[in-house]
Amino acid sequence: MPDPTLDPAPDPRHDVRPTLEAVAARAGVSRATVSRVVNGGAGVRQPLVDQVRKAVDELGYVPNHAARTLVTRRNGAVAVIIDEPEFRIFSDPFFSRQIRGISRELNAHDAQLVLLLVEGRGDFDRVTRYLAGGHVDGVLAFSLHTDDELPAVISRFRVPTVYGGRPERTGAEGGAGTPPVPYVDCDNRGGAREAVRHLVALGRRRIAHIAGPGDQTSALDRIDGYRDVLPDAGPEMTVEGDFTAEGGARAAEELLDRCPGVDAVFVANDLMASGVLRVLRERGLRVPEDVAVVGFDDMASVAESTDPPLTTVRQDVEGMGRLMVRLLMERLDSGAGQWPASVVTPTELILRDSA
What we know:
- By secondary structure, the protein is of the alpha/beta class.
- Helix 8 (150-156) links the parallel strand 3 (138-142) and strand 4.
- It has 14 helices and 12 strands.
């Protein structure tokens, strides 16, 4: 009598999942050839690749993930780690555009995106356990802060990583004799200089800056760009915001109370600029006649819908997400001894009606 605690023997009449052997027979090639094609290996002539893919489609073959991992030593998954509160990630179009670029490029590489959000110490512990489990081939991490624990957590497990934005923390720079972890960033400082020079060219003389958080390198680089053009601007002309519309509005209130004679404001991102425009309007100040405003990012959903439409510095956020994936894949394909170089993309001033 069979033991009821054991799984019943499979009934071949109901086991209809196509096998590599079935694909090989349909394509008229060897099982090894099918395996190389399915697992992305090289050395197979294009006509045979086409035959195998045709047979895969006809039979509805789905690769066995566990077996494929053993062959390729890859999981086919990449973790995207964002160190920001959940409300920011789902309300700021910057993040949706960067994730869209990442997702599209990962799809092109037949890899799955795993989104990990970090809001507190408990989340660091969870991310640590997940990375330690070897579930992903690599990490894309962005929105880092200068006191961030993420780089140290990631480097502890030697997971191939690319950062979005220039990292500041030593833990992101590799150990002694180890090349820095590659990153993709835009020319934040150069873009800020161009924005402020535009305001100077308009004849504005009291140009203030509403900065991003002081613990993020992008905000610090944009402050440096502002000061490159206006080295004599006093500290009262810079107010720190938090990259949100509400934070921009609060910073504008503080700035106008402190320096009521400002005639231009360079704002470190478009969301904050939208809050600045609202406060200026509430105080009866005309834009750009009384106060000119320039933002940063060129988030079309924000910059084109403000009143008036926002002059801003464009960075290719979606393209930067794609570049992050390409650098990571280059790292994975070239072996542990090869480190791709970091990439800094150009910015462009987009003129609209606010300045």
